[in-house]
Amino acid sequence: MSPRRFGVFAVGLLLCACGAVFHPTLQRDPTELRVDPGKDGFYWARDNEWSEESWAKIKPSTDLRWVKCYPGGFQCGRLLVPLDYNKPDEDSAAIALVRLPASVPTNSSEYLGPILFNPGGPGGSGVDFVLAVGVRFVSVVGSQFDIVGFDPRGVSRSTPRVSFYKTRIERELWAMSDVEELNHSSITVAGSWARNKITGALAVERDRNVLAHINTDHTARDMLRITEAHGREKLQYWGFSYGTVLGSTFAAMFPDKVHRLVIDGVVDVSDDYYTTKWTTNLRDTDNVLQWFFKDCHKAGPENCAFYEPSVKAMNIKLNDLYSSIIRSPVPAQTSGSYGLVDYARLRFTIFRAFYKPFAIWPMLATGLQDLVQGNGTALFNIQDLPRFQCSCDPLEHAFDNEGDVSTAIACNDGDSIPSDLEEAREHYREVLRVSEWGSIWAGIRMRCGGWSTDIPKTQFRGPIVGNTNHPLLLIGNTADPVTPLWAAHKVSSGFPGSVVLSQDSAGHSSISSPSVCTALAVREYFVNGTLPKAGTYCPIVGTPFVPNLDKSTIVPEVDSGSQTQIPFRQVMEGDGELLKALKELAREFRLGTTPLHV
């Protein structure tokens, strides 16, 4: 460690001294406080107020007692499950859940049970996801369902929570941040490889006999326990990105326990994720950039700031911008932040924008054009995060969602990989052959190069096939940056009767763009179990730059398997609230928020 970095480290520890003490109980299970039963049969925190710290007041139980919590009618609970399903009578884990309850009583014939949601990651918080967009999902599937989000084991509010670091300041100063650009960057392949050796060693050193049980197999079993705690025998589920790994794994482990299962933005599970190859994800990524240019060109200069008279001209302008930024990074300072727009930040910002066309592309176009003119503020703001602040309250950050668990899940799930530097360099070259964006993506697999080989891989990891109780619905976009449509068809081949619905859009998973066609197909599947016809393609409404574009859309008549052209104005009249919810869902889209970006 350089003298300067050591000085920063020492000052950081001093500044955060009040909150720097390691709290093993908080890491394990902060449940010392009690809740009181309310008159209506639910449970209230004693002060009848709710904050993130209130999770510590919910004592986990096997019968899943619900507590009124966040504003908007949400209920929260903590379900007690075995830490190790091979030794179910020993240590326990507590799974944090939130739900929007159905509008009908559970004993009503109209009640259709819970739908579990997973936003991806691995390591994404289902609690955060449902709190943010759960109301939108009610508009999609209907109010007869409970909308249920959960933090997978090791994640955020679920305990024991995975952490490789004793303090927040230790994690911050080691800068275990998002995977970075490995080309024209201060972070090289060799540097990333070496840092991952240390991170892997820290993980083992700080393990409390927990890491071996942080994997997709055990989370799939947790989902079955959640389903059973709702009084149901079979799972209803909608999983995105890594959530498709979890969903397809569940379907392979428990094919007779599938009632409705949608996987959206599908990962090549068997031959890429569980083998720790991470090479097929970028098959369509280069096409997403061209889609951005085409949408910008169609929108015109009045709607897209980066407009040029041709797509080719926009490609040239972006490459010229790369060269300029490599030569001379642009300083950026806002009212609350500051930093440099260098090549790494520019590339990473563009790559992350690929996920969210309707939410980010207009801002990206403005940021790129401003950068051409020497102003980096708008582009810097797209990826800006709140600055780290110390805290003297031990509960304030007790349930933060950290990136440590993403590494733990991915590296536990996948095959052990060679740990030598030359192998890391070869993987880097291999991913670059798939896409130019491999310079960002290659860093993901490198994290597992430092992972301990002493953690056993005896859990279920395939084959990902199964003759399920009810066929699966798989959804893929024609231009998804990290889960190509090809993978949806590949996974579907292992599940007889399953159907792939293709959404004709760029972005990561179907909810990154509004499609009434896709939404109605999903609703029909959950409510009636009816699948769209194989080969169905669903268009989206509008474009990222002209979201209110008046255009026709295709709504599948899913009961007959045919497709019918319906003018957009008719869809608006019949499904105005649905379309509004879909547009809001696309704008609020927040998948892939963990460091692995899946």
UniProtKB/TrEMBL annotation:
Annotated protein name in UniProt: Alpha/beta-hydrolase
Keyword Glycoprotein part of the UniProt annotation: no
Keywords (A to Z) from UniProt: Hydrolase, Signal
Homology family: Belongs to the peptidase S33 family.
Residue span(s) of domain Peptidase S33 tripeptidyl aminopeptidase-like C-terminal: 437-538
Signal peptide: 1-27
Taxon lineage: Eukaryota, Fungi, Dikarya, Basidiomycota, Agaricomycotina
GO molecular function per UniProt: hydrolase activity
Domain AB hydrolase-1: 114-294
Domain of life: Eukaryota
Transmembrane segments: none
InterPro entries referenced in this protein's UniProt entry, alphabetically: AB_hydrolase_1, AB_hydrolase_fold, Pept_S33_TAP-like_C, Serine_prot/Carboxylest_S33
